[in-house]
C-alpha cells in the first residue's frame, strides 16, 4: 500500500528556555517585560512590523498569568540557614519561559494544506512534550502568528514550590546545582565548577534530545543546523532530505496503522454483532425450552395428583360395590330357585322390584369401576407423555448450548462470559 504526502522543505529544530525574576537584569529583562512583549504591548513590540494579540493554546491568558505570578511571588517565603523565614528576593528567578519555533515561513504554509497539517501536528506534539515535563506548573502556552516563522511561548510557574524557584525547573542549572552541592567539600573549586558546567551541558543536551525524539523526528526536523556542525551545503541538504524521509515514513506508518485500526474495529464490531445475535437466539431458545420443561413438570405433577385421586376414588367404589356383588349373586340364586317353587309367583311379585333395583345398582357400580380404571390408564399415559416431553426439553437445551459454543468459537469466548455446561441427566426416562 502506498501513501502520498506533500512535505514542505524542513529545517532544524529550535527550542530555547530562559528564567526571569521580578527585578530586571542587566539587559532590562524581567517577568513584567517578557509578558509585555508576549502580549504585544506597543512599547514592548517594536521589533514586530504588524503586532497581533497572541492566541492562547493551553491554560490561562497572559494577563491572568501576570496576576497569578504576582500573588505567588508576594506570598512566597524562603528559609535562611539560621532557620528564620523571609519573603523571597525580587531578583530570584520565579518564571521559566520556553520558546519553540517551526522552521517553515507562514507564507509557504498558507499555500500548502499538508504543510498546515504538519504545523498543527508539530504544535500538538510540542504541547504534549511540555506537559509531560512540567505537569501542572505549565500554566500557559500562547501562539504568535505575526512574525515570519510560527512559534509558541510556554510559561512554567513553579507553583508547586513554596519558594517559587524557577531555576529548579531549568534542567541545566539544576544539574549543576546538584554537582556543586554534593562536592562542596572539595578544595579545588575550579575543578568543581568545571564538573558543574559539564553537568549543565549534558543536561541541556539531554533536554534537546528529548524534544528531538518526541517532536523533531516525527515533524521531519534535524537535531542541529549546518553551521553548528560545519556541514557543507550538500551535506546539509542530504540531512534535510533524510529528515523528510523519516517524516514521510512516520506519516505513512500513521496512516497505515489508522487503516488497520479501522479494519480491525469494523471486524470486531461485526464479530460482536454476530456473537450478540447468536447469544440472543440461544437465550430465546433456552427460555423456550425452559418454559416447556416447566410446563411439562407442572403437567406431570397435576397428572400425578389426578391419578392419585382417581385411584382413591376407584378403591372407594370397588369397596362400596363389593357387598352388592355378593348380594346380587345370592339374589340371582334365590331367583333361579324360585322359578320352580310353588311360591314363585308370590315371592317374585314381592321381591321383583327390590331385586331389579339391586341389580341396576350393581350394574352401575360395575360401570363406574370400569370407567375409573380406564381413566386411571389414560392418566398414566399422560404422565408418561409428560416425562417424554421433559426428556426432549433437556436434550434440546443441551443441543442449543453445544450449538452456541460451536458458533462463537475462540473469539466469541473473549466477548461472552463462560458459563458451566449442563448436560441432560438421562434419556427419555431420565428423570
Summarize the SSE layout with pairings:
Elements: E1 14-21, H1 31-39, E2 55-59, H2 62-75, E3 77-79, E4 85-87, E5 93-101, H3 106-109, H4 113-134, E6 138-144, E7 151-156, H5 171-182, H6 189-216, H7 226-229, H8 233-338, H9 344-415
Antiparallel strand pairs: 1-5, 2-6, 3-4, 5-7, 6-7
Would you summarize the structure shown here?
The protein has helices at 31-39, 62-75, 106-109, 113-134, 171-182, 189-216, 226-229, 233-338, 344-415, and strands at 14-21, 55-59, 77-79, 85-87, 93-101, 138-144, 151-156. The chain has 431 residues and is α+β, with helices and mostly antiparallel strands.
Name the descriptors.
alpha+beta; 7 strands
Instruction: Provide the residue-averaged pLDDT.
Output: 78
Query: Which range best describes the helical content: under 10%, 10-25%, 25-40%, 40-55%, 55-70% or over 70%?
Result: 55-70%
SS content category: alpha+beta
DSSP E strands, number:
7
Largest sheet: 5 strands, antiparallel
Oligomeric state as shown: single chain
> Spans with pLDDT under 50 lasting ≥5 residues?
1-9, 419-431
Overall spatial form:
rod-shaped
Strand content: 5-15%
* Strand order in space, largest sheet: 1-5-7-6-2
Q: Give Rg in angstroms.
A: 50 Å
Distance between the termini: 63 Å
Secondary-structure element sequence?
A: EHEHEEEHHEEHHHHH
- The total of helices stands at 9
